[in-house]
Amino acid sequence: MKNVLLIYTGGTIGMQKEKESSSLKPVDFKKLTSSLPELQNLELRVHHTSLKKVIDSSNMDKNYWREIAEIIQLHYESMDGFVVLHGSDTMAYTASALSFMIEGLNKAIVFTGSQIPIGSRRTDAKENLITSIEIAVSGKITEVCIYFENKLLRGNRTVKVNSEQFEAFDSPNYPPLADVGISIKYDDNNLLKSDKLDLKINTNFSDDVAILKLFPGITKKVVSAILGSSNNIILETFGAGNATNKKWFINLLKVTIEKGVFIVNCSQCLTGLVKQGEYETSSDLNKIGVVSSKDMTTESAITKLMYLDGICSSLEEKKDLFIKSLRGEISN
Ligand code: ASP
């Protein structure tokens, strides 16, 4: 009989209101699900655990990521797959972070959650949960993914795109891992192949990272403040990686890079990729050493920077690994 571990971290799926007028807060998920008929007679053993403190995922940080990775490591041999129940707000960040934290993965880690709590009549939680469990023990997936409202997506390619509809996620630059309808048809061409290495977790994430989102009219004061705040910066640019080429802006970036700060270029667009040099407004970025993140999501780029800053011993090594696909997060 197969074994699956449900790891509840918090989020709407297990939230309840104390009174009709109060806000939603995470509660004991096991209590909510142990009576669910949908989880009985599945011909597999469903095990439960949760973070020491369950949270709304807006409070997520690298310490919770470490806790999730350590739970998976502890139960890795005894389980066939893992389902992480997580709030949708930062699910794409956590799935990206975990994909970098865990190396040598040979089993599925499926993130899911819901837009309506599992205890409510119109909940989307049950289908998300049951299908995620099926995917986790299918033996087909050996990567970190997100299953939500009939979509199975690579975790580090996913973004939250909707806070109103059940269909909350998309992976604009990578095809779905499966076609989920009456049956689940996995697309072998899109799945990450297992590298058959031993499981290794690297939880030494750095928080020395920042994002500078450009907008028309951004001031020198704002740009200087953010560039001076961290050693690893994402420049969120326009379109295909374009930014103002006003002299003060390019000079500020140049001086910052010369000091050893690592700056990467991520587009504000969801679909498409950064092509530094295509327009005049991105060719200076190329010349001064800004590194293109190509088609990576911002969620993936920021967590990759946290990971690389923790493991790399030189700027060169960081650059080499950043532009390389480590877990399928960037196209070659
Ligand atoms: N605020 C919630 C969270 O991310 C929303 C959700 O669960 O979907 O934890």
Bound molecules: aspartic acid
How large is the radius of gyration?
A: 21 Å
CATH topology of the largest domain: Rossmann fold
The CATH homologous superfamily of the largest domain corresponds to L-asparaginase, N-terminal domain
Strand order of the largest sheet: 4-1-5-7-8-9-12-13
Percent range for helical residues?
25-40%
Q: How can the largest sheet be summarized?
A: 8 strands, mixed
Query: Quick check: average pLDDT?
Result: 95
CATH class of the largest domain: Alpha Beta
User: How many structural units, i.e. domains?
Assistant: 2
CATH architecture of the largest domain: 3-Layer(aba) Sandwich
Shape: globular
**Strand residues, percent:** 15-25%
Query: What series of H and E elements makes up the topology?
Result: EEEHEHEHEEHEEEEEEEEHEHEHEHH
Supply the number of helical segments: 9
Instruction: Please report the distance between the alpha carbons of the first and last residues.
Output: 39 Å
Structural class: alpha/beta
Topology record:
Elements: E1 2-10, E2 15-17, E3 24-26, H1 29-33, E4 44-55, H2 62-75, E5 81-85, H3 91-101, E6 102-103, E7 108-112, H4 125-136, E8 144-148, E9 151-154, E10 159-160, E11 169-170, E12 178-180, E13 184-186, E14 200-201, E15 210-213, H5 220-227, E16 232-237, H6 247-258, E17 262-267, H7 280-288, E18 291-292, H8 298-311, H9 315-322
Parallel strand pairs: 1-4, 1-5, 5-7, 7-8, 15-16, 16-17, 17-18
Antiparallel strand pairs: 2-3, 6-14, 8-9, 9-12, 10-11, 12-13
